[in-house]
Amino acid sequence: MASIVQFENVGLRYGTGAETLSDVSFTLNTGSFYFLTGPSGAGKTSLLKLLYLSQRPSRGLIRLFGEDAVTMPRARLPALRRRIGVVFQDFRLVPHLSAYDNVALPLRIGGYEEREIETPVNEMLAWVGLKDRASARPATLSGGEQQRVAIARAVIGRPEILVADEPTGNVDPDMAARLLHLFDGLNKLGTTIVVATHDIHLLSRIPHANMMRIDRGRLSDPTGALRYPPRRSEMGGSE
Ligand SMILES: Nc1ncnc2c1ncn2[C@@H]1O[C@H](COP(=O)(O)OP(=O)(O)OP(=O)(O)O)[C@@H](O)[C@H]1O
């Protein structure tokens, strides 16, 4: 199976303190589903930030879509970022836009015509249970409703990679199951999914998911699924 993301001996240090991430090495296979777990403060969000290119590592190699994301000129980063859907832990909805317009944003940026946008946006809002809240601004939505808008916005453009940071932290168990089902559907269409979560109940809902666990900035690899470098058989050769 081809790899879509490779980290090799990645370290991240904020300022002059100790490293927040150390010697992080893993490979994500195209089209696979990954859960990232670990205690609060372990470095999950930091690792995801490196993955969606909002943070550069202090050391190590990161390859994304086959390209070296560390030495790449900054001007190239936005094009790469557009291939990644992100559900931020703090949602980051555009405050002056309605739920509908927040969800439509990636399609508008992608150059789609309004007539091509309306049906998928309405369908996506209905899927996350917000059909009746399409015209509401984020400030008038509950935390769980904002989270669902953020998820709809992240998945609407069918990104190649979906990165979600605690995407079910503000919703009830039924909605969490529904949202995970949405991620699973997207995964079946080929999107590589990475979900950071504290919620161990989510893990059993995607039996084919790979587990990544991070503790005090170091990745442990309980399943052996994240070897770096990948086996030759995973790169199309034989062992
Ligand atoms: N911008 C920053 N500047 C300095 N330190 C930071 C910054 N962002 C995160 N940290 C520190 O890095 C460590 C890891 O934080 P991170 O948010 O990645 O953990 P996490 O596993 O996502 O935690 P949680 O589950 O609570 O969201 C923490 O000690 C945090 O204080």
Helix and strand arrangement:
Blueprint: E1 3-12, E2 21-29, E3 33-37, H1 44-51, E4 59-64, E5 67-68, H2 77-81, E6 84-87, H3 99-109, H4 114-127, H5 143-155, E7 161-165, H6 173-188, E8 192-196, H7 200-203, E9 210-215, E10 218-220
Parallel strand pairs: 3-8, 3-9, 6-7, 7-8
Antiparallel strand pairs: 1-2, 1-4, 4-5, 9-10
Structural write-up:
- It is a peripheral membrane protein.
- Residues 5-239 form the ABC transporter domain.
- GO terms for molecular function: ATP binding.
- Keywords: ATP-binding, Cell cycle, Cell division, Cell membrane, Membrane, Nucleotide-binding.
- Homodimer. Forms a membrane-associated complex with FtsX.
- It is built from 7 helices and 10 strands.
- The strands form 2 sheets. A 6-stranded mixed sheet has the order 6-7-8-3-9-10, with helices on both faces.
- With 239 residues, the chain is α/β, with parallel strands linked by helices.
- 30% of the residues lie in helices and 23% in strands.
- It has helices at residues 44-51, 77-81, 99-109, 114-127, 143-155, 173-188, 200-203; strands at residues 3-12, 21-29, 33-37, 59-64, 67-68, 84-87, 161-165, 192-196, 210-215, 218-220.
- α3 packs across α4 (114-127) and α3 (99-109) runs parallel beside α5 (143-155).
- A hairpin with a 2-residue loop joins β4 (59-64) and β5.
- The longest helix is centred in the C-terminal third of the chain and has 16 residues, at 173-188.
- It is globular.
- Adenosine-5'-triphosphate binds next to α1.
